[in-house]
Amino acid sequence: MSDCIFCKIANKEIPSSVVYEDDKVIAFNDLDPKAPTHVLIIPKEHFSSALDINDENCEIIGHIFSVTSKIAKKLGIDKTGFRIVNNCGQDGGQTVGHIHFHMLGGRNLGWPPG
Ligand code: AMP
Ligand code: ZN
Ligand 1 within 6 A of 87 CB? Predict the structure, then answer.
């Protein structure tokens, strides 16, 4: 997707603060953090949202969660905990149309969310 900001981050056309990368995913610090640790984990392949995930391509989601565990240990929030959030569509608060998982930690996030 030539006009997708997260595809551009994955392709290194736009700089980001990378915390993890492999051939399938990249994780980088959110520009506008909502918690002391706020990382976005994205597949390098473009999917618009959770609605694009199906039986044929869902392996990437398991991979993203395996990466989440590695990042938690690397950033030292594995003991204190964290939250993984996927916003989908308008009511979900999705503003970037490339599926991404927010990884939030470093403070007590409270529940329920607003
Ligand atoms: P969402 O509202 O779930 O679509 O989340 C999009 C997130 O992307 C927001 O938390 C933004 O702060 C973040 N964001 C947008 N552009 C960038 C960027 N260039 N680098 C890092 N984070 C970004
Ligand atoms: Zn994209």
Answer: yes
